[in-house]
Amino acid sequence: MIDDKNTKEEIKKDLNNICDECKTEDESVTQNLILTSYKICKSCRISKTIFPL
């Protein structure tokens, strides 16, 4: 039971909608986290796709 509680707290930390690249809050961060396992917003994802440096 203790492991479940720690796991839930970690999930809540990950789902805070803050982009790792630009540090802005956006709804697309959680969506991209589920789809691609990266915590980036829509604009950062597009820029990383076009310019993958």
Structure report:
With 53 residues, the protein is mainly α. The chain has a domain at 17-53. The protein contains three helices and no strands. It has helices at 2-14, 28-36, 42-50. The termini are far apart.
Walk me through the topology.
Layout (H helix, E strand, L loop, with lengths): L1 H13 L13 H9 L5 H9 L3
In short:
By secondary structure, this protein is mostly helical. It has a domain at 17-53.
- Give average pLDDT, whole number: 84
Distance linking N and C termini: 43 Å
Largest sheet: none
Shape: elongated
The arrangement of helices and strands along the chain is HHH
Count of helix runs: 3
Beta-strand fraction estimate? under 5%
Structural class: mainly alpha
Please compute the radius of gyration using only Cα atoms: 13 Å
The unreliable regions are none
- Extended strand count: 0
Proportion of helical residues: 55-70%
List keywords for this structure.
3 helices, mainly alpha, 0% strand, 53 residues, single chain
